[in-house]
Amino acid sequence: MGKRLNEEKRLQVVKEAIAGVKVGVLARMYDVHPETVRSWIRDHRDSISPEEIPAADEHVQELQRLQEVEQRYQKAVKVLGEKELEIEILRELLKKQNPAYLKNLK
């Protein structure tokens, strides 16, 4: 598992999660398992006052930007995978001797 973080860092992670940064992003950033981050949130969320939650400072803004980039990347990978599958299907159809789609045109 990832490196152990001191209590101060754990609280920082919880505050960032409460501010809207996704658990997966925080887990990757701090090199800990997502379930560890969730556990910290459960353990500490009640001890954090609203004043302690980071506003849209540069760090939180950067994390939110990273989230958006990751979401766009995942969407692009999915679309690319679908397109590659479509191309492979079309290639297989072109290899057939008597493609069914030509029979339907007659």
| Number of DSSP E strands | 0
Cα distance, first to last residue?
Answer: 63 Å
Strand content: under 5%
Sketch the topology as an H/E string, one letter per element: HHHHH
Shape: elongated
Rounded average pLDDT: 82
Please give the radius of gyration in angstroms: 23 Å
Note poorly predicted spans.
none
Compute the number of helices: 5
Number of domains: 1
The proportion of residues forming helix, as a percent range, comes to 55-70%
- Counting helices, strands and paired strands, the structural category is mainly alpha
* Biggest pleated sheet: none
GO molecular function: DNA binding; transposase activity
Keywords: Coiled coil
Pfam families: HTH_Tnp_1
Coiled coil: 56-86
Please name the defining characteristics of this protein.
single chain, 106 residues, mainly alpha, 5 helices, elongated, Transposase_8
Outline the structure in words.
The chain is 69% helix and 0% strand. Helix 1 (7-18) packs across helix 3 and helix 2 packs across helix 3 (34-44). The chain contains five helices and no strands. It has one domain. It has helices at 7-18, 23-30, 34-44, 58-95, 100-103. The mean pLDDT is 82. The termini are far apart. With 106 residues, the protein is mainly α.
